[in-house]
Each structure stands twice: as C-alpha cells, then as structure tokens.
Amino acid sequence: MSCSRAAAEATITEGAAPPAEQPAPAAAELPGPPEAGRNRGTALADAVASPEAVPVTPPGAKHLVLIDGSGYIFRAFHALPPMTRPDGTPVNAVFGFTQMLSRFLTEHRGSHLAVVFDPSRVTFRNEIYPDYKAHRPDPPEELIPQFALIREATAAFGVACIEQPGFEADDMIATYAREFAAAGGEVTIVSSDKDLMQLVRPGVRMLDPIKQKPIGEAEVVEKFGVPPEKVVEVQALIGDPVDNVPGVPKIGPKTAAELIQTYGDLESVLANTAKIKQPMRRQNLEQYAEQARLSKRLVQLVADAPLTLEVEALAVKPPEPARLSSFLAEQGFRSVLARMGLGEAAGDAGTRAARQAAVAAAQAAQVVQPVAPSPGQAPFGDYATVTTMEALAAWIAEGFAAGIIGLDTETDSLDALKANLVGVCLATAPGRACYIPLRHVTAGGGQGDMLAAPAEAPQQIPFVQAMDALRPLLTDPGVLKVLQHAKYDLEVLARPENGGIAVSPVDDTMLISYAMAAGKHGHGMDELSVLHLDHKPVSFDSVTGTGRARIPFSQVPLDKATAYAAEDADVTLRLWHILRPKLREEQALALYEQVERRMVGVLRDMEVAGIKVDGTELARIGEDFSQRMAALEQEIHALAGRPFNVGSPKQLGEILFDEMKLPGGRRSKATGAWGTDASVLEDLAAQGIPLPRKVLDWRQLAKLKSTYVEGLAAALDPRTGRVHTDFSMANTSTGRLASTEPNLQNIPIRTEEGVKIRRAFVAEPGHVLLAADYSQIELRLLAHLADVPALREAFATGQDIHSRTAADIFRLAPDAVDKEARRRAKTINFGIIYGMSAFGLAARLGIGPGEARGIIDAYFAQYPGIRDAMERLKEEARLRGYVSTSFGRKLWIPDINAKDMARRAGAERAAINAPFQGGAAEVIKRAMVRLPRALADAGLKARMLLQVHDELVFEVPETEVEPTGALVRQVMEGVAQLRVPLAVEIGTGHSWAEAH
C-alpha cells in the first residue's frame, strides 16, 4: 500500500503502544528561527530522533535502515510535550518523526531506508486467537489525527513506506531484513520492541532509538537469558500481557530461560515435564501446553510475507523540495525546514521578539549558561533574589536556554482560587535557582490590599512589569515547566489578579512519583526530597514561625524567603531529572502521559467551575437535622435515665458501662476512659440494645450537619453561589481521587439524609444536572480479571448480576430468587472484592459465622476463578510488593509481608481490593480526560463539575440534554475493552438528587 493512500485511509485502529515499550521522557519546542538559537528542549527532541548510533554508510556499501514507524509514533508522542500547528491540530508526534527522518537523510545513515507501519489492529494472529491485543486501549485523542500526518510526512520526505494488510509491522520488518541480508547487505532495525530481538543475527542488528543503544546478541542474552534464535521459545512460555499473549501461568522470564537452556526448545520442555521437580511448575506446563504452543505461534514473526515494494525501491533518494517545503511549512516545523536547506522558517513574531530580547539581555549581562551538574551533586543554597528587571531578563534568558525549568509560586493562601501571588521561583539547573519577590511588605507594615503595591515594601519589581516579562517564558511551547503539585500553581497563575498566565507545557513531579509508586510512600516534595535526594528542605515554619507568632509569607525577609522559596524550585527540578527517566523503566509512562498529566487541566477546570448550591434549601436541611437531633437527644436521655451530653464520648462511656453495666467495654490505657467509637456502638446495637443505635443515628446527623450543611455554607462563594471543591490527585493508594474543602465524596448515597443534601446542589437557570454513573464497575472488573464465564454471560446479556449470583450459589431457579436471597448475594458480591471474612459476612447478614462460611464456600465453588484470582493477587503482592490494575498501574502493598498477623491480613485484603478500586479509578479517569474534548468537538456546552467515585456530574443546557447524555455514555462506555461490557446509567434533574 502506498504512503499517500495510507495517509488517506489511516484510522483510529492504529495499535496502541504497549506500556513496556514506552519512551524515555523529553521536552521539545516548536522550533524558533535559527537566530534564536537551539534550546535544550529541541536538543532533547533531537535525542529522541537521533540516528547517531547507526554508522554512516560508506559509498557503495549496502545498508538498509528499517524504522518501526508504528512504535516510533507512540514514542515520539509520549516523549514530546503537547504541540499544535496554527489550525489547532496536534503535531508533537509528527514533529519528532520529521526530526528523525531529516537527520537520517542529511547525515547519510543507510543506503536504503524504509518506514514500516501497522495498517490496522486486525492481522492473521487475530484469526488464530481473537483476544490477541484485544484489551489495548484506544490511542489518545490527540494522537489520532497524527497517524495520517506521519504517513504524509514519510511521503513528503520521499522515503519508502511499507505496510501490508493482515500483517504487523514486525512481520514486514522480518521479511525485508531477511531479503536484504540474504543479498549480502547490512540491516539496522530502529526499534526497542523486544519482539524484534528474535531477528538479531550477523548482518542484522537493532538500535534502541530512545537509549541510542545498539542491540546485538549480547544485549538479547542479557534481556532474555537466551540467544536471539531462542527468544520465541522463552516468549512462548512467559507470554506477553501487553499483547494479551497467554503463555504459561507463573512462568516468568528467569524460569523460562532456565527451562529453554536445559531442554533446548518449547516442545522439548513439554516433552520432559515429568522431570521437572517443582509440582506447581510441572502442573502448569502440562495443563497449559496447548496455550504455550498457541503463544509461540503468536510471537513468532513471519519472515516470508508478501513484499509491498521491491528491495531496490527502498534506495534513499532526495525528496522533492517543493512538496517537502510545503508540508513542513504547513506544520510550522521551522527547524526541520532549516535542516533540510529549504529556506528560512517563518516564526511567531511575538515569540521571536521575546526570545531575541531575552537573549540580548543575557548577552548584555554577560550571563553564561552553566553546565548543569547532576541532581545529586550540586550544592543546595546560595540562591539569587531577583529585584531588578535587568536581573530578571538574565534569568528569563537562562530559562529559554535551558529548555527545562523548575517553577514554583509563593502565595498567601492554600486555596488556589483565592490565593494572591506573592512571588515566583525559577530553577534553570540543579543548584541554580532564584526567587522573584512581587508582593512583599515590611514585617509589621501591614499587607493592605494585596492586589495593589503596598505602601511600605522592600525593593522588588513592579508586579505587572514582572509578570509581563515572565509570560513568554511560562507560555513558550519549547520550554518545559516542571512543578510539584502543578494544579495549584496553574490555578494561581491563571487568575487575572495574578497575571492571567496559562502556563504550558508542564510536568508534575508529584504525579510522576504517584504514577510509579501509589501506596508505597507519600508524594509531597519534602518526602520525595529526602527519599530521592537525601536532602531535607527548609521548612515553612522555620521562615514564618508557628502558632500566634506566625507571619504571612509576604512579611518574611527576602533573604529567608529566597532560601525557602528558591529551594522549592531547585528541589522540584532535581526530582524531575531523577524521576522522569524512571517512568519508562517502571512501565508507568503511558499512565502518566495519557492519564495523570492530562487530569491536571481537567480537574483545574472542574474546580474553577464549581457547582451551584441553593443556600435556602441548605438552611432548611440544617433546620431539619437540628430538629431531628433534638428529638433523638430526648429519646437517648430517656433510655439513659438522665440527661447527658450526647456528643461527649466520656459521658457516653460512663452511661453505657458504669451505669447501665453493658458488656464489652474497654478502657483506654492512656486516659482510662471507656471506648465509644462506632465499632463499639455497632457491636452493642447488634445485641438489640436501643441506646447505642440511637447514638449512632445522632452522630450521623451531627456529622452530616457539621460537614455538609455548615461546611457547604462556609465554602459557598458569595460572588457565584457555587462551591469549589479541591480534588486531591495523589493521596490514595489506589489511584482514586479525593475531594476536600468541602469533601463531596462521602455524602451517603442511599440514605434519606444523603438524598436531602443532594437536593441543595442545583443547576443554573436554563440548565440541568446530568449524572453519569458506571454501573457495578468493580464487579465488572472482577468478572474481567477472574474471567468468570457465568458472570461474563450475566453482564453481556444484561441480567441482574445479584439475582444471577443468588440463583447460582443458592441453587435456585431464576424466578425463585426473592429479595432476601438477592440481598445476600449482593452483600457477598461486593464483600468479596474487599476480602470479607466469614465473620464480616456474618455481621453484615445477621447470621452465624458457620452459615456465612458455607455461603462463601458455595460462592467460590460456583466461581472458582474468583478464588484463584484472589490467591494470585496475594501471591503477586508477596513476591513483588505490589499488585497491578488491568491497565498496568502498580499499587504498592507495604505490609504484605508484615510479621504482625493483623497488619498482614489487612494488607492481603488490600491486595485483593486494590486492583478493583484502582481499575475503576483508571476507567473513570480515562473517561474524564476524553470528555471535555469530545464535548467541545461536538459543539456541546456541557461542563463537567464533579467526580464522585464512579460518577460524573455535568451542568448541561436544557436544550442539549439528549445529545450530551448520548455522547457521555458513548465515551464512558468506550474507554476500555474488557471481557464484559461497561455500562453507564444516565440521570438528569434540576438538582443532584433528581439526577439520581
């Protein structure tokens, strides 16, 4: 198929990049004009595209360079920050690709050159095994339009394009490598795809385009433990979760290599299973022999596929200047135009002027960009305080030259939507950072209006002048801004009062760490600094004081403010240098790039939007709760025999255990007071004692009144009538979001009180609230992960899953399942995900432990795959320290090998539950990053306001309810391909309660 035709026919079926094959990180720019210089961002883009490790081909020599185009597309997309051409089309992957091709063509790497693409996901392997690659997610939306552009680029450069329907790019690479090597030529395969390592032999080598590392036989042996000709034998045993190749359960790379080294090949291993001493290994090899043979057929590359072009058609030839110049100019790729000698590139006048001014200022100040030391070697401290425009211009020039800067803000509030900017911190290299004070006042002088220049202040640059100077640097697409907890700083800087700067592109060290180590440790800057840099940063308390003596940061003397603030930017940049390269090693790059980093902008917009609250309705709810609490107090006093403070745990304990002499009381060793927490009261209530049940009801109302009625009223923005919750992105061990100030995720869903509170959340006039809720997402993930045929069938056919479970485990006809049987089945369906014990189930159902154990045994007997999956998860956690979601996120389980039995049991329950909670979090996050673009592309005005566990809440114009609901459902149900269908329930109403 020709490249031009392929460009016209490219579709979103292009295969997604496997997590294990993600690129090393980089930053890049849409290049400026030659006179602006080549910044570090472009240098990193070139590093991704660099062909230096491919030897220059001597005249007359035959050397074929085969570029794995499909793999490179994804690597360039993830390695480079977002870029768009003038019409808004994303082009970062196209830019990286053209950089690579231009260097191959101008530096004489290869006498023959071809780019090989996957024409579609469906190949002959899918006929052998329908589930092959079936679970791969769809490509990111920003990448889809770039598939066709990359094929256009290949044609514009005059480079041969190879793709063959029914075959993968790897098969075509194998075929052309065999043909060319057989004719006496040398072959270099530009790819880091481990599947291609089976092709390495004399005359055929690989080049990892990310690490710029040649791959020969020694490197293959290092990775697989066997030489290239035995790679498929090892892969047949271990399988490949990225491509959904099954392999043999519990046979890892090391074991597989040992088996192949001992017996020679797969068939010999299977013929000698009786000699294998380990019972489980022997049993799995015997049980899954055919699965291993199938896996070998899937991983074995075809080396005799039909040729789409004759070998000689791959000879390098110069591109047509007019065609190439037109293509590159249309994309805005000025540096590639210059490299190809096609004339001076036109650039954005404003950006060019800003860069030229910055460079001129740096030259005037005789600033020389230092050679950046390693993050761990540079000393901390001795940072600069920037108080003149001349000094600021020099630092801005350094930022442009560096291409990657650390960025932090200092403010007067933790609420980003109310915070005033006090200062900005920049770091241009490890150990080189500055603080730019903007709104400092002399201590004791009073702050007054923070938005105006204070009457008494230390020397500093006028606020507007400083922010106007910083704007080109902070918005330049060629300078990567590295922040810690970027969402906060982006919200602060975007406010008009703080300069109204839309900072881009950004990386977030907090989220980089979180993508790799959810549950392993915290992800705050101080903790990460100690962990990775062995450095304890200056504390906030040490510069502002504590308690009543604390002063606002705007009153901190500039020397102390600089030592604290500039260090934040320095530490953040150092952490980026250490953590960013690890994303690929930890197979977390796709998770970070496609989900976590994109969530920053999504959540920022949601927080800024907020949700409207009806203050009058809220007051009515508060009064209702107060009256009900007063009535409950009277009942509690009557049951106790005297009045007491129901909210006092001490007085309640005395009533229950001293006066009423109830059993089960335990005194605190520290205070001697009786314990009266919820578990104590629940145990007493379960014994039929009415007073503790009444106290629990009173406490629930008191908590709801305090947290939601009074808390929402306090959080209400009087200017907009809306509340703006703060979504915490890295606080949970499962990947789920948390909500604070106010917390909107703990409102009871099915209680009368929870419904009343949701009535206070309303839509603006002319709008409705639309709630989209994933139906039983965790149970669907359980059916997917455990591959339970009965549950898969129930979900596929739309059966009531709890009724189906009741019929299966209680041996009932479907029409004989009553409410009680369904209730029991529902309890165990959800309880099993949380590792519920027989005692826990007994307490939930009000039955004896023996009967509960019988129900659990019947459940596992009916669905043995679930028990196997649970045991696999616990074993995975014990061996690796973490479990993984279906989408590859590692969820660390710190106490899984604890000596304390209670801690270990809790960790085992967490290991069982984490993949389901974490998987559900991944599903809804993937939907959230797609929905804003999908709504905008459809011309719909709906705004996403809230995420509450498995539910999204939108504010929708009344005239757009139907198309919005249809689009939301389509996107949410299509974000992941599981063994069972995803289902979304849509509801609408003028209040959140009505939408349920």
Automatic annotation (TrEMBL):
Extent of Low complexity compositional bias: 1-30
SMART domains, A to Z: 35EXOc, 53EXOc, HhH2, POLAc
Pfam families tied to this protein: 5_3_exonuc, 5_3_exonuc_N, DNA_pol_A, DNA_pol_A_exo1
Keyword Hydrolase part of the UniProt annotation: yes
Domain DNA-directed DNA polymerase family A palm, chain residue ranges per copy: 754-960
Keywords: DNA damage, DNA repair, DNA replication, DNA-binding, DNA-directed DNA polymerase, Exonuclease, Hydrolase, Nuclease, Nucleotidyltransferase, Transferase
Domain of life: Bacteria
Residue ranges of domain 3'-5' exonuclease in the record: 383-584
Domain 5'-3' exonuclease: 62-317
Catalyzed chemical reaction(s): DNA(n) + a 2'-deoxyribonucleoside 5'-triphosphate = DNA(n+1) + diphosphate
Family statement: Belongs to the DNA polymerase type-A family.
Assembly and interaction partners: Single-chain monomer with multiple functions.
Protein name per its UniProtKB record: DNA polymerase I
